């Protein structure tokens, strides 16, 4: 089985990322309408954030303002994940078709890197605002906070990788003109 082209690993990966993207969009939509659902049947619904810079678990619908900030932070974070999956899906489409140096790939990689960095910084700002503006001493809630340097580093690597793909596309175009 080939790595690039039709019926290759890249085309299978494109399909997997496409499914993951649609699942991520469904997750964002469900997360966005969760506060609008009636309370009657949802007394025991809880909300857990265990990724990124904040680790917290609490009952969603007996809310203080701080809980709504955490919900908003998670909604923004999951939206950023969906955007990254969408851009990855767009990058993998031409690779699965056999064209790894698509002219749009560098700009998509740059956008992906920017979304990763901005999402990480927004989560950090949400956490800082939450812990500085409210007293977070609710029983049953555990909070920890740190800057997500791994995501920031990954965003910078994606921007550098975009430059490498840009130069690769320029070399490919130049070699096509000389042949």
How many distinct domains? Answer: 1
Q: Please provide the count of β strands.
A: 2
Order of helices and strands: HEEHHH
Mean pLDDT: 79
Shape: flat
Query: How much of the sequence is in beta strands?
Result: under 5%
Supply Rg.
20 Å
Largest sheet: 2 strands, antiparallel
* Helical content (DSSP H or I, runs of 4+): 55-70%
Provide the structure class: mainly alpha
Give the distance, in angstroms, between the N- and C-terminal Cα atoms. Answer: 29 Å
Uncertain segments are none
Strand order of the largest sheet: 1-2
Give the helix tally: 4
Describe what this molecule looks like in 3D.
The structure is a single chain. This protein is mainly alpha-helical and 179 residues long. The chain has one domain (9-38, 46-178). It is 65% helix and 4% strand. The protein has four helices and two strands, in the order αββααα. The protein has helices at residues 9-33, 65-96, 105-133, 149-178; strands at residues 46-49, 56-59. Strands 1-2 form a two-stranded antiparallel sheet. Helix 1 (9-33) runs antiparallel to helix 2 (65-96) and helix 3 (105-133) runs antiparallel to helix 4 (149-178). The model has no long low-confidence stretch (mean pLDDT 79).
């Amino acid at each position: 089985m080939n790595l690039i082209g039709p019926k290759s690993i890249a085309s299978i990966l494109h399909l997997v990322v496409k499914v993951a993207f649609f699942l991520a969009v469904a997750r964002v939509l469900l997360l966005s309408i969760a506060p609008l659902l009636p309370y009657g049947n949802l007394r025991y619904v809880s909300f857990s954030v265990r990724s990124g810079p904040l680790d917290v678990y609490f009952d969603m619908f007996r809310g203080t303002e701080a809980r709504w900030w955490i919900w908003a932070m998670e909604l923004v974070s999951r939206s950023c994940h969906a955007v990254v999956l969408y851009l990855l899906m767009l990058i993998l489409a031409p690779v699965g078709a056999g064209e790894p140096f698509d002219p749009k790939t560098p700009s998509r990689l740059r956008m992906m890197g920017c979304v990763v960095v901005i999402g990480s910084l927004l989560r950090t700002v949400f956490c800082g605002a939450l812990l500085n503006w409210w007293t977070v001493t609710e029983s049953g809630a555990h909070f920890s906070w740190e800057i997500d340097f791994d995501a920031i580093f990954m965003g910078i690597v994606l921007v550098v990788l975009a430059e490498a793909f840009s130069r690769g596309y320029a070399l490919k175009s130049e070699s096509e003109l000389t042949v």
